[in-house]
Design a protein that fits this description.
The complex is a heterodimer of chains A (288) and B (747). Chain A is α+β, with helices and mostly antiparallel strands. Helices cover 33% and strands 25% of the residues of chain A. The chains are: A alpha+beta (288), B alpha+beta (747).
Chain lengths: 288, 747
């Protein structure tokens, strides 16, 4: 195994493009190193991108959005008051990943690139409308986060491509987001179902919304019908019932050791209702 | 010793000093299994079957052996033949012979100069399998047409015509069972199931073994019992016990799972083949879950007859348990314990020990008892609700007392079930009002406890301090308890006693720390050994004073004349006697070895409050109370720790833990992410009440306390969930999907 520590993303992309065998990018390492130890992957080239200058930083973009470096750890997000005020749902999703020790290392980008349909930070990113900046051998491009995962353990990144930052849009006024997951325990577990909701309001009425489900399909799933169910409403009982129905309809989960199809489908509806209520309260400046 | 002769006032017993091993453990100095390292050491890795049941056609290790640095490969062909009974079972489990019997079964092992290389070499060992039909669930395994795991494994208890995987059959009881049910106002029968769970100790198995061509060997190992390691490795490898010296490390949890062997003989066999170089093997968590010894899974029919006033007139239990591909599920213990808290005139117990394609079960905290309690305590709760009776009052009404014949045939000596139930009923937790979706459950539990072969030596140091050598590894604070009892007896400071867990060459045979025996048996032996040392110190003082030894008594750590007629001499302290012992007859020590009699049973009662999310079926444990008879708590903090630990493991078993198999017979949840033991934030503070009904069989009244606590949580939580939701879960674990489905069915 060859270990590389490039100083630029362009260099990282070139290394990956030219690597002949199995390649893995290393940021926090909380997936890659575990997979290495479990002999699930034996990379020929391990490209450490966290030494690239600026990758551990959270910064404001020109449009009042946020740029999050690929080596920013979960604990940094949790400690960032500005980001948390704008996108509490994104931050709370990331903070659910692993233990306190893991939080010191694990990154949003890593969680996204691991390609798990149950990744806790991804639904929040998708609901927020986050975009990934990708550096490849031929230059940079941006892709909506929902278009990165293509199936369990797989992404749309091509050989030589590496995510060089995540970009969150400006929150704007009267917006709120939330992420909830279901696990049978209280922590240190993997989502059986996850749901993120981001919405904006005018007065009591929801004017825009994005509803995203995790762990109920091969990829994290953006559910436009669920958003439609609540847009134009004040999140009344009828809207919540329609939201539940749309969320359930969007599920195509599996039966496995973590949950059944019936359970996941039903709980997706429950979490959609609960996350929508929290996001709605946050958007209206109410209780967190 | 009669109860009224037991002292009740103590200088040290009942206090809570820091544990002697505490500083080492919190600073990382304590040496655990994987910390052993020797010059020239090799690393071992194990080749494991990916199939639940498969004929081993061929093992080709040529590619592994071709790697530079690979020093040895061991297969079953390297082990002696002709073993029988449990020795054969242990050998077959150590390395598969003709067939791999479960996913994870060891098939070969390799030793190499580094861990990575050993793992690489293990991957290069090519095993050709012929996959056979497998069976996992106990109710499937007992079917007459189930895949046969091993012909001829049944013992003499199994009547002809039984299904082929039944290897032991039990049938015992008392009274007229039909008349008993006829006398009842309500008779109910239900079927309950529990799934296999793992002890979940934090420290994976680890050892370093060294064995020369001369048959002399050494082993450093994480174990609950160094003599068991010696005996079992000797049997599996055909060694002489005295030639194998086994030193236990500190132990990061065992709960019964480290009372047997897994990869230990492999390290010795590899070492012998590698020219005597020591070989270290450290299991991964996946290996621990796949290939060590979880507990059994159980399927149980229970029938109970109850009068309107709550009197239980008859009980019948028919239990089926699989303990893996070998005989040895704890079905007998499960049956013995099931009705143990109750005085019931008519009882019938039927048991089947069944083979299945799973790892060979090992002991797990009160083996069998939690399953039996889940079935019986759940049904009693169901019947109390049906009859409108208070479940606590019904338990008190039927509770066993001293002198009663136990359900399993023994006569109870001094026991504290009534006192335990009364203390439970009086606890403030029972008065806490419950909110919506909340429910309270209670249940009782029982464990026999155990004494076992015990050998202890106490030596007085030159300065009057004392060293106690015991053979029972400290898994729950036993060093602190033994030091307290020894210091109390000698009349010296707690800090002046050092308790060492010693290797197999240093004492006679000791059974492991199992059966909640260490503080009882090693403690009792240490007290008797201290009394022998005291007698000798009195002799030395008597000789110096020129009086009869009988005229000397031991008071507050010193010899003194027993009364004015004995002579007038100032007390001679232990330090003074010790400082000149070289000139007064030589070293002073005490020794005791026996199978101590008088171990006392321990009963417990638990009360749990839960809240169930009606939309997701998720259970939150709000409040938890453990009340248990300790006889006497030598070090109350470690007694409480045992109570809380038992409850925590029982909560996990009840709610989320289980061995999950795929259709292919492979274990699906081989890491802690998916084998869901409770995390700290899952549990509320666990309240404890230590009831003390002293055990007359121990000089300080000790009963074992380690195991009873895992028994009541399973039914207590099922009873609480029923109270919260109105649904009765009869198949553990009570996961959110199961509870939600049950609530929806109920409507």
């Amino acid at each position: 195994m060859r270990y590389h520590a490039p100083q630029t993303f362009e260099e990282a992309a070139q290394l990956a493009a030219q690597a002949p065998g199995v390649t893995r990018f290393l940021a926090g390492g909380t997936d890659v190193l575990v997979q290495l130890r479990a002999a699930m992957v034996r990379p020929d080239d391990l490209i450490d991108i966290k030494k690239i200058p600026g990758t551990a930083e959270i910064s404001r973009t020109a449009d009042e959005g946020w740029r999050i470096g690929v080596a920013v750890a979960g604990a940094q997000l949790g400690a960032h008051a500005g980001l948390k005020a704008d996108w509490p749902g994104v931050v709370e999703g990331m903070e659910l990943v692993g233990s306190t020790q893991v939080q010191g290392r694990a990154t949003l980008t890593g969680n996204l690139c691991n390609g798990s349909p149950a990744a806790d930070s991804v639904p929040g990113l998708v609901a927020a409308g986050a975009v990934a900046e990708i550096t490849g051998p031929t230059g940079k491009r941006t892709v909506a986060v929902e278009d990165i995962p293509t199936g369990p353990g797989r992404t749309s990144l091509t050989k030589g491509e590496v995510i060089s930052a995540l970009l969150l849009p400006p929150r704007g006024a009267h917006g709120g987001d939330a992420y909830l997951r279901f696990i049978p325990r209280t922590e240190m577990d993997i989502a059986v179902v996850g749901c993120a909701v981001s919405l904006t309001v005018e007065g009591a009425t929801i004017t825009a919304a994005r509803v995203v489900l995790g762990a109920v399909a091969p990829t994290v799933r953006l559910v436009p019908d669920a958003a439609k169910a609540i847009i134009g409403t004040a999140l009344d009982d009828a809207a919540l019932a329609a939201l539940t129905k749309a969320a359930e309809a969007a599920c195509s989960p599996i039966d496995d050791k973590r949950g059944t199809i019936a359970f996941r489908t039903e709980v997706a509806g429950v979490l959609a209702r609960r996350a929508a209520r929290i996001a709605y309260d946050r958007a209206r400046g109410g209780k967190q | 010793m009669p109860k009224d002769e037991l002292k009740a006032e103590f200088r040290l017993v009942g206090t809570r000093p820091n544990r002697p091993d505490g500083l080492d453990k919190v600073t990382g100095r304590a040496r655990y299994g994987a910390d052993a390292t020797l010059p020239g050491m090799l690393w071992g890795a194990v080749v494991r079957s990916p199939h639940a049941h498969a004929k081993i056609v061929k093992i080709d290790a040529s590619k592994a052996l071709a790697l530079d640095g690979v020093k040895a490969v061991v297969t079953r062909a390297d082990l002696p033949t002709g073993l029988t009974g449990e020795d054969w079972n242990l050998q077959e489990n150590t390395l598969a012979g003709e067939k791999a019997l479960y996913d994870g079964h060891a098939v070969a092992a390799v030793a190499a100069t580094s861990r990575l290389l050993a793992e690489e070499a293990a991957r290069l060992v090519e095993v050709t399998y012929e996959v056979l039909p497998h069976v996992i669930d106990v109710d499937d395994a007992i079917r007459p047409d189930a895949p046969v795991i091993r012909e001829g494994a049944a013992d003499a208890s199994v009547p002809p015509g039984m299904p082929p995987n039944v290897v032991r059959y039990l049938d015992f009881g008392r009274g007229d069972i039909d008349a008993g049910f006829a006398a009842a106002d309500l008779v109910r029968e239900q079927t309950y199931k529990t799934e296999a769970t793992h002890q979940g100790y934090i420290e994976p198995h680890a050892c370093v073994g060294q064995l020369g061509a001369d048959g002399k060997g050494e082993m450093w190992v994480c174990t609950q019992g160094q003599w068991y390691i010696r005996k079992m490795c000797s049997a599996v490898l055909g060694l002489e016990a005295a030639q194998l010296r086994v030193t236990p490390s500190e132990i990061g949890g065992g709960f019964g799972g480290k009372t047997t062997i897994f990869m230990e003989p492999l390290s010795l066999a590899l070492s012998r083949k590698a020219g005597g170089r020591p070989v270290k093997i450290v299991m991964s968590r996946s290996e621990v879950l796949r290939a060590t010894g979880p507990t059994a899974s159980a399927s149980m029919d229970v029938k109970i007859g109850m009068k309107k006033d709550g009197t239980i007139t008859a009980g019948r239990a028919e239990f089926r348990m699989q303990g893996g591909a070998f005989p040895g599920s704890p079905v007998a213990e499960g049956l013995y314990c099931a009705f143990a808290p109750y005085a019931i005139p008519a009882l019938q117990h039927i048991g089947y020990d069944v083979l299945a394609n799973r790892p060979k079960c090992a002991a797990y905290r009160a083996p069998g008892s939690p399953m039996g309690a889940f079935a019986v305590e759940s049904l009693i709760d169901e019947m109390c609700r049906e009859l409108g009776l208070d479940p606590m009052a019904v338990r008190l009404k039927n509770a066993v007392r001293e002198g009663d014949t136990a359900s399993y045939g023994a006569t109870f000596g001094s026991i504290g079930l009534i006192e335990t139930l009364e203390a439970t009923a009086a606890h403030p937790n029972l008065a806490v009002p419950l909110g919506p979706n909340q429910g309270r459950g209670i249940a009782s539990g029982f464990w026999f406890n155990h004494a076992g072969e015990t050998s202890v030596t106490l030596a007085i140091g030159e300065d009057g301090t004392a060293t106690v050598s015991v053979g029972t590894p400290d898994i729950g604070g036993s060093r602190a308890s033994i030091a307290l009892m020894t210091a109390e007896t000698l009349g010296i400071r707690y800090e002046d006693v050092r308790v060492n867990i010693v290797e197999t060459g240093a004492l006679g045979v000791n059974e492991p720390t199992h059966g909640s025996r260490a503080t009882f048996a090693s403690g009792k032996a240490a007290v008797i050994a201290a009394e022998a040392a005291i007698r000798e110190m009195c002799n030395r003082a008597a000789a110096e004073w020129g009086i009869e030894p009988e005229a000397v008594e031991w008071v507050q750590g010193a010899a003194q004349p027993a009364g004015p007629n004995a002579g007038k001499f100032p007390p001679m302290s232990i330090a003074e006697i010790a400082s000149k012992m070289g000139g007064t007859g030589g070293p002073i020590s005490g020794h005791h070895e026996s199978v101590p009699d008088g171990f006392g049973a321990s009963f417990g009662a638990h009360v749990v409050d839960v809240e169930v999310d009606p939309e997701t079926g998720r259970t939150t444990v709000l409040r938890y109370l453990v009340v248990q008879d300790a006889g006497r708590a030598i070090h109350p903090a470690y007694v409480e720790g045992q109570y809380q630990g038992g409850a925590a493991q029982g909560i996990g078993w009840a709610l989320n833990e289980e061995y999950i198999y795929g259709k292919d017979g492979r274990l699906q949840n081989t890491v802690f992410l998916d084998y869901r033991i409770p995390v700290a934030s899952d549990l509320p503070p666990i309240d404890t009440v230590i009831v003390e009904v002293p055990n007359p069989g121990h000089p300080y009244g000790v009963r074992g306390v380690g195991e009873t606590g895992i028994t009541p949580p399973l039914p207590a939580i099922a009873n609480a969930i029923h109270a919260a939701t109105g649904v009765r879960l009869r198949h553990l674990p009570m996961t959110p999907p199961k509870i939600l489905a049950a609530m929806k069915t109920k409507g």
